[in-house]
Amino acid sequence: MELQERLNEVRSHITAAERQAGRPTGAVQLVAVSKTFDADQIRPAISAGQRVFGENRVQESQGKWPELKAETPGIELHLIGPLQSNKAADAVELFDVIETIDREKIARTIADEMKLQGKSVRLYVQVNTGLEPQKAGIAPDDTVAFVDFCRKELGLSVEGLMCIPPADENPGPHFALLAKLAGQAGVEKLSMGMSSDYETAVAFGATSVRVGSAIFGAR
Ligand SMILES: *Cc1c(COP(=O)(O)O)cnc(C)c1O
Description:
Number of strands: 8
Bound molecules: pyridoxal-5'-phosphate
CATH topology: TIM Barrel
Distance between the termini: 16 Å
Number of helices: 10
Helix content: 40-55%
CATH architecture: Alpha-Beta Barrel
Shape: globular
């Protein structure tokens, strides 16, 4: 199957899942996750009309996205991988959305960088819903206070929450927990769902899904 066909298939599955959940068509944004694929492999997705992309690594993204963004206006780039403080300046410069704010230090560094560069980047807080030690993200119990801290202490506007459920568990309860925390924290957006579970995520209220291999193929 060609990339364009796979992309169309994912889009139609999202539309069907929206309908089934009684949600309006277009309620869910598709973030096409292009990590490990190079500019030539990403261009067909852009030609097919895809404008929103996700990447895991700042350095890898610097090697392809400045060029791709220059070619096509209106690209929206999301950072969905862990962020280190020493990459914060580059991340603020290149990305439109950072989905992985998960501790005070990085929140502070991002706030400082945005001031320095005079650029505002949209932000999500990553929640470690499965409390997995190897995974990034703030603990569920600390989420509301952390969002509050970002807003009140740092003046950041946090627009959503993001999670990556444990690979070996039913994702539904994790999606439900993220939605509940978003309600408590007063944020509107929910970034949840990947190739294997994005339709479930739509049913649980995802406002964006991050789909890689179902579009670009195996990595
Ligand atoms: C790689 C990645 C995805 C996409 O995963 P697929 O299973 O290829 O769809 C989504 N979210 C994050 C945070 C990722 O690192």
